[in-house]
Each structure stands twice: as C-alpha cells, then as structure tokens.
Amino acid sequence: VFTDPMTPCGQIIALHFSIPTVFFLRGIPCAVDIHAAQSPDPPSYVPRLFSLNTDHMTFPQRVKNVLISISEFFLCSIVFSPFESLASDFLQKPMTVTQLLSHGSIWLKRTDFVFDYPMPVMPNMIFIGGINCGQKK
C-alpha cells in the first residue's frame, strides 16, 4: 500500500490484509515517523519542528527543545486519538499510532540533508528531497 502516514487509514488496511506499506511524507508532527521507525531522536540533538533551532544549539535552546518535545506528546495524543480508536476497533487489539506506523516497510521522505538539519535515520528511510526542488534558472 502506498500511503500518507498523516492519516493512517491506509496503514490500518495494510495491517488488516498483511501487506507491506510504503509511506510518502514530508514529516509528521510530534516526530511520530521518527519514533515509529525506531530512529534515535534525542531532544538535546535533534531540533523540534517550529523551534527555529539548528543542530548546533546552546543550553537554553536545548531546554526549549526539551519543553517543546514534552508538549508535543500531549498535543499529539489529542490529535491522533481518533485514529488510535479506529485502529483498535478495526484490528481488534489496542494500537497506538506509533505502533501502527511501525509496520511500515519503506519511508520515502521528501526532505534532504542539504535543506534540513542532520538527523539519525534508519536504513528503510529514503530521502527523495530533490523532487520538490524547482529547476534553477
């Protein structure tokens, strides 16, 4: 199944039929994609979305980054709770969004190290950031 993990309905169907999943995404709030792929994601190293931090952070920026990561947990539990209940009802077992997306085979990420900060990734995460770049004149 070729699907977008932001709304994990395709992944629910793929798990029900036991078929592999390919995710195509730019990024998911709260780094759910990073946690689902089991990539390391220490808040002291990887800047959070909308924090405006780089990979070279001062101590106050690192503290801010940790506070943002804590607040993301509560925000995303509210945002993704309808999908968790849908997956739990349909698959007949308790599921979180992270557990649901952890069954993805390949993650096609529309980012690039040149434009974004460096981060640790797993081997099944493939960067295809060039498809979003315009032709230089």
From TrEMBL:
Q: Identify the Pfam families for this entry.
A: UDPGT (PF00201)
Q: Which InterPro entries match?
A: UDP-glycosyltransferase, UDP_glucos_trans
* Organism superkingdom: Eukaryota
Q: How does it sit in the membrane?
A: Single-pass membrane protein
Q: What is its main location?
A: membrane
Molecular function terms from GO = UDP-glycosyltransferase activity
**GO (cellular component) term, any one:** membrane
Which keywords belong to this entry?
Answer: Glycosyltransferase, Membrane, Transferase, Transmembrane, Transmembrane helix
Q: Where does it reside?
A: Membrane
UniProt lists the family membership as follows: Belongs to the UDP-glycosyltransferase family.
The name of this protein is UDP-glucuronosyltransferase 1-1
